Amino acid sequence: MHSRIIYHIVWTTRDRRPVLDRVSSAFLYRYLRAVATQERSRIVALGIVQTHVHVLITAETVTDLPRLVQRFKGGSSVLINREGHTASGGEVRWAKGYAIHTVGWRGLDVACAYVESQAERHPDERIE
Q: Are 94 and 77 in contact (CB under 8 A)?
C-alpha cells in the first residue's frame, strides 16, 4: 500500500524582515519544487510574501520531514545569497524553526486556497 500525507509548512525570514522579492521568490518556486521531488514529496501549493513562505506538500510516509525542511530553508538561503537571487542584492536569512500541520484530504482545496492567497491576506507584504 502506498500512502501519502499532506503537510502545510510555514517559515519566516529572520526578524520578519521584508527581504523576499520577485527574483528570490522566482528562485524559491523553482528550488523548492526540485528539492521536494528529490525528497519524495510534491508541492501542491506555494505562497510567498516578503516575510514568509507557505508550502503545501504531499509526502510519502518514508519522507524525512526534518531533512526536507532543512533543505528547503538552509539550502535556499545559501544559494540565494551565494548566487545573488535577489533584486536588491540583500541577504536572505530564515528565522529558526518552522510551523508544520497535517491537512486531511477533504480539506485540501481549502488549504490550497489559503496558501495561494497569501498576497491577498498580507497586501503590505505582496511581492510585485
A: yes
